[in-house]
Write a structure and sequence with these properties.
Layout: E1 13-18, E2 21-31, E3 36-46, E4 57-60, E5 67-70, E6 74-76, H1 79-93, H2 100-118
Antiparallel strand pairs: 1-2, 1-6, 2-3, 3-4, 3-5
Length: 125
């Protein structure tokens, strides 16, 4: 995660990486004065310890709330990483249990807490 603020455009897909998890979100707006990104989460992708031998766990966050997070935590998402994940997300969305949005929200909350604890300086007002 870079100390300098990256440049993002509205509607661009960005990624926040932490350990083996990746939060993908759409940029809604950038609050330049505070270096904050207003993002709409798309999915949380969690890889197991066996990155190549097992598919990642995907959590659909498209029905959740928007986030305001420090812009320096994000990087631009690459098409080559995102397109296969979006296809997988659409495939699993058709067969999700009724409590899937609740589980996804909990996973996102835990992920954001871990990022906050790991990078407290980025969250100072």
């Amino acid at each position: 995660m870079s100390d300098s603020a990256p440049y993002f455009q509205n509607s661009q897909i960005i990624c926040l990486e932490y350990q083996n998890s990746y939060l993908y979100a759409e940029v809604i707006d950038i609050v330049q004065a505070r270096q904050i990104c207003w993002g709409r989460p798309l999915m949380l992708v969690v890889y197991t310890e066996h990155l190549l031998s097992e598919p990642p766990l995907l959590y659909d966050l498209r029905a959740g709330a928007d986030l305001l997070l420090p812009i320096t935590l994000f990087r631009a998402a690459l098409d080559t990483e995102l397109i296969p994940l979006l296809a997988q997300l659409e495939a699993i969305a058709k067969h999700q249990p009724p409590d899937a949005p609740i589980i996804a929200h909990r996973k996102l909350k835990n992920f954001i807490q871990q990022v906050w604890q790991a990078h407290p300086d980025n969250f100072k007002l």
